[in-house]
Amino acid sequence: MTTTKPPPPGLDKPWVPSVIRVMSAVNTWLYRRTGGRLGGSWRVMAGFRKPAPVLLLTVTGRRSGQPHTVPLLYVRDGDDLVVAGSTGGLPHHPQWYRNILANPSVTVQVGSEIHERTAHVVAGEERARLWHMLNDTYADFETYATWTEREIPVVVLTSRT
Question: Strand, helix or coil at 62?
Fold first, then answer.
């Protein structure tokens, strides 16, 4: 994918990933303590007028072996949950994505319910169909895609039961 427009000024600053980590930690803390009543909807940018649902994804660190949890926007596709590795259009894949490539066994919290799932990256027609669904839920995904030269990965989280 080629960049079709420059990212906003400052997106390439070295402190941006740290800000994202802090915001994610606060969102995760609120989400866990309230069963998703707080932090369960994303209301920023395109989400201001059309809030997008949020889940908590817990992955195993590929180097540390420790659990790491991140809040992510998602859509449902039948029983599956679908997320995008957008990192707000930053030029590198998110750490959680790199971790699922090493270990696809994940835990997902939606509201107060917690489930074990398996993550897999989709491509081709399936990716195109799910990317469209993600953009219908949160239009800024398409904007993020124009800010980076990498293809934003689409990941399906399937039930292990």
Answer: coil
For the chain, the domain total comes to 1
Taking the model in full, what pTM does it have? 0.84
Give the phi and the psi of residue 39 in degrees, each rounded to 5. 85, 0
Q: Is residue 8 part of a domain?
A: no
Query: Domain of 84: which CATH number?
Result: 2.30.110.10
Q: How far apart are CA 16 and CA 22, in angstroms?
A: 10
* Domain interval for residue 33: 16-159
User: Which residue shows structure tokens 């659990």?
Assistant: 67
52 closest CA partner among 144, 147, 135, 156: 135
Distance (Å) of CA 152 to CA 24, 37, 83, 122:
19, 28, 10, 11
Maximum alpha-carbon separation in the chain:
45
d(Cα 50, Cα 63) in Å, to the nearest integer? 37
Residues 32-91: pLDDT tens digits? Answer: 999 999 888 776 554 456 678 999 999 999 999 999 999 999 999 999 999 999 877 777
